[in-house]
Structures are given as structure tokens and as C-alpha cells.
Specification:
Blueprint (H helix, E strand, L loop, with lengths): L3 E2 L1 H8 L3 H9 L6 E3 L2 E5 H15 L3 E2 L2 E2 L5
Antiparallel strand pairs: 1-3, 2-3, 4-5
Helix pairs in contact: 1-2
Length: 71
């Protein structure tokens, strides 16, 4: 089955505060699963989310235009 993390474990894993995690959840900026009233994070979804974040910030910008042709 899926490896699920609670907010405390995810915060520790990502070296972020729990309140920062809750803020990202409320803004729908991080993938999460609600099980009843509990918030859980699927480790696989979090790893994919981190990879997506990496590629966005790693695009090279040359003369104000990124290498994919978008500003």
C-alpha cells in the first residue's frame, strides 16, 4: 500500500514547520489526502510534487527568456 505521512512526519522530512505544512494544505499548494478529519500525505505524491517543483526552478534563463521560450 501507499506510505502515508502525517503532518508532523512530513514537516520533519521536509525540514519545514507544521504550521507551514498546514498553510500549504489550506492554499492547496501541496498534495494531501483527507481521511475523516485527519490530513495525510502520500509519500509518492510528495516525491512527484518535489520533482515538479525542482524542474520549474531549475530552468535556465538566458537574456530574460527561459530555455523553453517562455518568459
Amino acid at each position: 500500500g501507499a506510505v502515508m505521512l502525517d503532518t508532523h512526519k512530513l514537516a520533519k522530512e521536509l525540514n519545514l514547520s507544521e504550521s507551514g505544512i498546514y498553510q500549504m494544505v489550506s492554499q492547496r499548494k501541496i498534495p494531501f489526502v483527507k481521511i475523516g478529519r485527519a490530513i495525510r500525505f502520500d509519500l509518492e505524491d510528495i516525491e512527484k510534487w518535489i520533482e515538479e517543483k525542482k524542474t520549474l526552478s531549475d530552468k535556465a534563463i538566458i537574456g530574460g527568456v527561459s530555455i523553453d521560450g517562455k518568459r
